[in-house]
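Please go through the protein record below and explain what the tokens say about the fold. Record follows.
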Amino acid sequence: MADEYIATYLNDHLAGSVVALELLDHLQATHSEGELGTFFTQLRADIAADRDELQGLMEHLDIAESRTRKASAWLAEKVTELKLRFDDPEDRSFRLFESLEALSLGIEGKRSLWIALTAAAEKSPSLRILDYGRLIQRAQNQRDRVENLRIETAKKALI
């Protein structure tokens, strides 16, 4: 049963990375120039690297990627995008603010994943293949960057 739980948990987080990367693709396309373009390009590269780490762990543990979860995540991102468009049809600062908030929460979820795996690795040698401390710090750095931009955007979006 434990193997089933770790497979479910890792696949859930892999699906979350699909949502984040799809959302970042939209943000990159919308804000392709200037500081925001650079910000989203760098953030997307960081999140893709984290997804690759997660996929590597899943391969090491011989856990198959759930196509159903990935497809559901893709669909959830499309519904989220529709919601964001409905909330701010002109794609002004409110849509950016809500997108940043979703990314921030997702990154916190990823940080929680790495923390949980750190704890589980104490009892499961097969989980000891990643540098969780580095991944936790990288997630914290990503969250700090997104939060700083989210707060700055709130000053425009919520007034």
